[in-house]
Amino acid sequence: MISRAHCEVVESSHGTAVAVRVALVATAAALAATAAILAATPSALFAQEDCKFMKTIELTEPAVGTLRVNAGAGSLSVRGVEGANEFRLAAKLCASDERRLEGLGVTLRGDRLDTTYPSSRGGLFSWGGNRYARINLALEVPMDTNLRVDDRSGIIHIIDTGDVTLEDGSGNILIRDVGSLTIHDGSGSISVSRVTGDFRLDDTSGNLTVDGVSGDVVIDDGSGSVIVSDVNGDVTVSDGSGHIRINAVGGSVRLDEIGSGSVTVHDVDGDLVVRDGRRERIRYSDIRGKLDLPPARRGSG
């Protein structure tokens, strides 16, 4: 039997409840589990600013090996829990007016978590200024759950899960203690730590920090600084602009493209190969394999 809890609250900007509808079909244990999700969720995900009208939704579903998450505007937090056997969701729906709030929705069925947003077709809604609609999601899953996430905008926080594939439009990303990791990102800073498989990133803009990868690292970055450390496998980087710093690599380091920033590479068991860029801007030390660098330019000093 699937247990579900559904609680809705609509508030005005003056804190006066204009409509309250509560429908609870769940055990006390399910409610306590949801409270635990909220307690463990970073405070930024459920902050109250700019939320004139609000609704909260709580759902549970028996866990399967992979969860596909379709999220739009709003923050997303996913946390793996040891011994868990179900997906547990706490969602906060937030809008600038009641009509937009009514257009927001969340469903959790089988291996899918889906969100819906007010349609702008036919001029039903205009956006910008003080008009908004978003959904903040806090989710608990079994620790070995693989994630396939398609997100439009907002903070993303993922910890203690299986393999992760993430398609993201914009917003900062924090991921740690996962299996293999693949990210296709538009903009926003990215922080990654303790990946037990390979890490691959295709990024347009934003700073990147990577610390602790058991497999290989492949980065195709448009702009922003890149800092990579403690990698057991090979590191391959193609970067448009921004400083690059690579440290403590068990395999080889290959830089296919270097933009306008400086490059520092230190403590590499394998080779250092640089296919593009000015040799004068490349600083390196403790390279135990062979060096393959661009020739120095004449008159560079």
Proportion in helices: under 10%
The number of distinct structural domains comes to: 2
The total of beta strands comes to 26
Q: Beta-sheet strand percentage?
A: over 45%
**Mean pLDDT, as a whole number?**
83
**Main sheet?**
12 strands, mixed
Helical/strand content category: mainly beta
The arrangement of helices and strands along the chain is EEHEEEEHEEEEEEEEEEEEEEEEEEEE
Low-confidence stretches: 1-38
- Report the principal-axis shape: elongated
C-alpha end-to-end distance:
75 Å
The number of helical segments is: 2
Q: If you compute it from the alpha carbons, what radius of gyration comes out, rounded to the nearest whole angstrom?
A: 23 Å
Spatial order of the strands forming the largest sheet: 3-6-9-5-11-13-15-17-19-21-23-25
How would you describe this structure to a colleague?
A hairpin with a 2-residue loop joins strand 7 (105-109) and strand 8 (112-116). Helix content is 6%, strand content 55%. The chain is elongated. It has helices at residues 28-40, 98-102; strands at residues 6-11, 17-23, 53-62, 66-73, 76-81, 86-95, 105-109, 112-116, 133-142, 146-153, 156-159, 164-170, 173-178, 181-187, 190-195, 199-205, 208-213, 217-223, 226-231, 235-241, 244-249, 253-257, 263-268, 272-274, 282-287, 291-292. The chain is mainly beta and 301 residues long.
